[in-house]
Design brief:
Structural class: mainly alpha
Subcellular location: Cell membrane
Protein name: RpiR family transcriptional regulator
Number of helices: 7
Radius of gyration: 19 Å
Distance between the termini: 73 Å
Keywords: Cell membrane, Membrane, Signal, Transmembrane, Transmembrane helix
Oligomer: single chain
Order of helices and strands: HHHHHHH
Membrane topology: Multi-pass membrane protein
Number of strands: 0
Family: Belongs to the DoxX family.
Length: 185
């Protein structure tokens, strides 16, 4: 097996693993599959963590994960697929960031890993064992990489920034207690 064969096989495995996980997460949001809550339940959750409107946020995240994950697994439109999936994971990481890094404590480790893997695949390309290669890279051109990341970064910044402002504004209305409860007794 040549070095190029090993690289292509490695890229295929990365695409199938990350793309499959992303597609499954999106299917939970969109269809309620694999123990998910569908658009209704996910929409309610999205609202509770500051992504408003909830149903639209659930739909956008579900489409980015399902579509981006499926396309990554297939190796089709790899720059757009990877950028879309990375953007969705950036939004998820923003929710989990207050809990620290590790997933065990509710942190952003898993979202960051999937997002960085998707971004890495978008930049590296899908390899020869892909639909992009089979189709002559018609939707995997070099200029598509910065274009896909620029569009995704702009959209993600707007959505995550609006969420942060919404959460800050909600917190301004709360008053913190001056003393710990145990000292009040």
């Amino acid at each position: 097996m040549t070095r190029n064969d090993r690289r292509d096989l490695g890229l295929l495995l990365l695409r199938l693993g990350a793309g499959g996980a992303l597609a499954a997460h999106g299917a939970q949001k969109l269809f309620g599959w694999f123990g998910g809550h569908g658009i209704e339940g996910t929409g309610q959750f999205m609202e509770s963590v500051g992504y408003v409107p909830g149903k639209a946020s659930a739909t956008a995240a579900g489409l980015a994960e399902t579509g981006g994950g499926t396309l990554l697994a297939l190796g089709l439109a790899t720059p757009a697929a990877g950028a879309a999936a990375a953007g969705a994971m950036a939004g998820a990481a923003a929710v989990h960031a207050p809990n620290g890094f590790f997933n065990q404590g509710g942190g952003y480790e898993y979202a960051a890993t999937l997002g960085l893997t998707a971004a890495g695949l978008a930049v590296t390309g899908p390899g020869r064992l892909s639909l992009d290669h089979l189709l002559g890279h018609a939707v995997n051109r070099g200029w598509m990489i910065p274009a896909a990341f620029a569009a995704t970064a702009a959209g993600t910044a707007v959505v995550v920034g609006a969420r942060a402002r919404r959460l800050r504004k909600a917190k301004e209305g709360e008053q913190e207690s001056l003393f710990e409860e145990e000292y009040m007794e």
